[in-house]
Amino acid sequence: MKVIIDTNALMIPVQFNLDIFSELHRLGFNHFIVPLAVLNELDRLVTTARGQDRIAAKVGRSLAQRCELVSKEGHADDIIVSLAQVTGAAVLTNDIGLKKRLIEMGIRVISLRQRNRLELLS
Q: Which residues form the PIN domain (predicted)?
């Protein structure tokens, strides 16, 4: 199954010491998609963030290379919603606003649960 990975999700491995790819495999997902807009957000964080957030953004940038990169114009959240609708993919995110938007649209959402595992919400 396919999953689209958001910016904050690519930062989970550093922030919460959790292997998102192992967790996604455990949930049955094996095709990982990252929009280039997410990479752009990570690049901005690498230059503007400090401390652990900066390290997490660098690691997230590296992890994204293990995924299918999709080029599409627009704001990252809008691209993620659009891609999820077109591909039928679930979305891995911790962004509360994006989660709410996706759930209202009937799109499956995966999120960090109890800081130590991923869970499919819908």
A: 1-100
